[in-house]
Specification:
mainly alpha, 4 helices, disordered N terminus, 153 residues, 0% strand
Length: 153
């Protein structure tokens, strides 16, 4: 026989706890990485579908589509800023930060094209994803401390 004490469970809305639900930097970084992984899958699919039209076009479309997805997921999920940061602001400012990634990935593709002209689309996509990960750390810091930062209390 189970005896119930009548005590209420803690509310799930409390985001101060541990794990992915918290609002601390570690939870946000974990969610940031999950969003980044999802966005990279979209990038790779876009790149592979469009690679026959040229790697630079495929890269640009892949970066734009994955950036729009990641900015929205960061706004809603990673930093929980949907109530204080408008969609357009998140896309505009987050997109400006992601532009650095586009410049870097384009430079890496150009270098790879020159050094390994026979590289496959899969190899090119993987190299760009690795290069973009270098920008990811900086992007996390900028998004967390400026664009999606909670208002001072």
């Amino acid at each position: 026989m189970t005896v119930r004490t009548g005590r209420a469970r803690p509310a799930r809305a409390d985001h101060g706890g541990r794990g992915l639900r918290g609002d601390g930097w570690a939870a946000q970084l974990a969610r940031f990485a999950l969003v980044g992984g999802s966005s990279n899958v979209l990038y790779a699919l876009s790149f592979l579908v469009l690679a026959s039209f040229g790697t630079f076009l495929a890269n640009a479309v892949g970066v734009v589509t994955s950036t729009v997805l990641s900015n929205e997921l960061h706004r809603r999920r990673t930093f929980r800023a949907a109530d204080r940061v408008h969609w357009f602001v998140a896309q505009w400012e987050g997109g400006a930060v992601a532009a650095l990634g586009l410049v870097l990935s384009t430079a890496v593709l150009a270098l790879m094209d020159r050094l390994v002209p026979t590289a496959t689309g899969v190899a090119q996509a993987l190299v760009v994803i690795v290069a973009s990960a270098a920008v990811g750390g900086l992007r996390f810091l900028v998004l967390r401390t400026t664009i999606f930062a909670p208002p001072d209390r």
